[in-house]
Amino acid sequence: MRLAVFGAGAVGRSVVELASEYGHVVTAVADSTSAAVDPEGVDPAAVLDRKEREGSVGDAAPGDALAASYDALVEATPTTLGDAEPGFSHVRAALEADRHVVLANKGPVAERYDDLRALERDSAGSVLFEATVGGAIPVLSTIRDFGPAHIAAARGVLNGTANFILSRMAAEGLGYEHVLAEAQDLGVAEADPTFDVDGTDAALKCVILANVLGDGGYALEDAEVTGIRDIPGSALELAAEDGQTVRLIGEASPDRVRVGPRLVPQNGTLAVTGTRNIVQLETENAGSLNISGRGAGGPETATAVLSDVSRLR
Q1: Domain total for the chain?
Q2: What burial class does residue 147 get, using C-beta atoms within 10 Å of its C-beta: 0-12 exposed, 13-18 middle, 19+ buried?
Q3: CA distance linking residue 99 with residue 79, whole number of Å
Q4: Are residues 155 and 283 located together in one domain of the fold?
Q5: Closest of 76, 77, 78, 6 to residue 36, by C-alpha
Q6: Contact criterion met (CB below 8 Å) for 225 and 219
Q7: How many Cα atoms within 13 Å fall on the side-chain side of residue 250?
Q8: Residue 206 predicted with pLDDT over 90
Q9: Beta strand 257-265 pairing with 244-252
Q10: CB-CB contact of 294 with 272 (8 Å)
Q11: Exposure string (b/e) for 83-122, b if CB count within 10 Å is 16 or more?
Q12: What is the gyration radius of the CA atoms in the chain, in angstroms?
């Protein structure tokens, strides 16, 4: 399948690098200011090397990538809130041209899900977005296989940065600010960690889950969100005395979305450590299903993107 990749961050670059391994050809790559377009397939190494050296992927304009010859648009630009732009406009253009869309960008699915589905209904193209929840973990495909109507709720640890911080605080008896600085030094946390530690990233993923389970109707403003900034080390010490620990848990159902610190058993299913994610699905007939793995990272998330592309064949 021929791909146009929008976004040249960690995920977009990894999609460009790995596409050929999955039998796909990248015919266009765009970042915020430039594009590289070749109907026969761009040279991934040359495009990514130029991005590294010069800060741009090519000499064409980003709009030229939307007009290129491709079967599926991979939308991997940064997630934005509210109107979900410019990602939503990229998606609109592809669907109006009857092309498929695969999203790593959470914005259009979390903030404008109903608009997205309306565009899809009027298009010959399809929209898939496995990579928006849990990185490499096949959460959405599992829900699709079971049928959303047969899953009552989803809950879990959906942000690796917050989980790393809470895990280290509990294991070493360290305070939040100390562990945050460590996480930033290791590259686990961004220089501005707000999106992660305030619970926004986990909430966006839970909004997407609620939209899938309940066929739409949710945006970030509908979620109840509490982050981890104000958790003292003493709270984790007290929890440990009772065989418990604290994790940032997201919960999604057709009726509610909420994210916040919760007490969980120290050796329980939801007490994953480090940057791992876990999602627990409450099914109608099969009990609880637990899916765990790497919830972020360029190559990891790219595998989810490329799995979606393969499903479109």
Answers
A1: 2
A2: exposed
A3: 21
A4: yes
A5: 6
A6: no
A7: 33
A8: yes
A9: antiparallel
A10: no
A11: ebebbbebbbebbeeebbbbbbbbbbbbbbbebbeebbee
A12: 20
- Collapsing DSSP to helix, strand or coil, 212 comes out as helix
Helix (H, G, I), strand (E, B) or coil at 308: helix
Q: How far apart are CA 229 and CA 157, in angstroms?
A: 16
What CA–CA distance (Å, rounded) separates 259 from 264? 14
pLDDT of amino acid 95: 98
Residue with token string 């009772």:
242
Domain with 49 in it: 2-135+299-311
Cis ω on the peptide bond leading into residue 86 (within 30° of 0)?
yes
* 221 and 128 together in one domain: no
pLDDT of residue 270: 95
Calculate helix-pair angle for 200-214, 139-146, nearest 10 degrees.
20
* C-alpha angle 111-112-114 in degrees, rounded to nearest 5: 135
Whether the pLDDT of residue 313 is over 80: the answer is: no
Same structural domain for residues 66 and 168? Answer: no
205 flagged as catalytic: yes
Q: What angle do CA 40, 299, 226 make, to 5 degrees?
A: 130
- Of the residues 205, 247, 262, 294, which is catalytic? 205
> Which residue has tokens 């990579």?
131
| Both tokens assigned to 157 | 């640890």
For residue 170, which amino acid is it?
Answer: A
Q: Is 298 helix (H, G, I), strand (E, B) or coil?
A: helix
Residues belonging to the chain: 313
Res 156: pLDDT: 96
Residue 88: phi, psi to the nearest 5? -65, -40
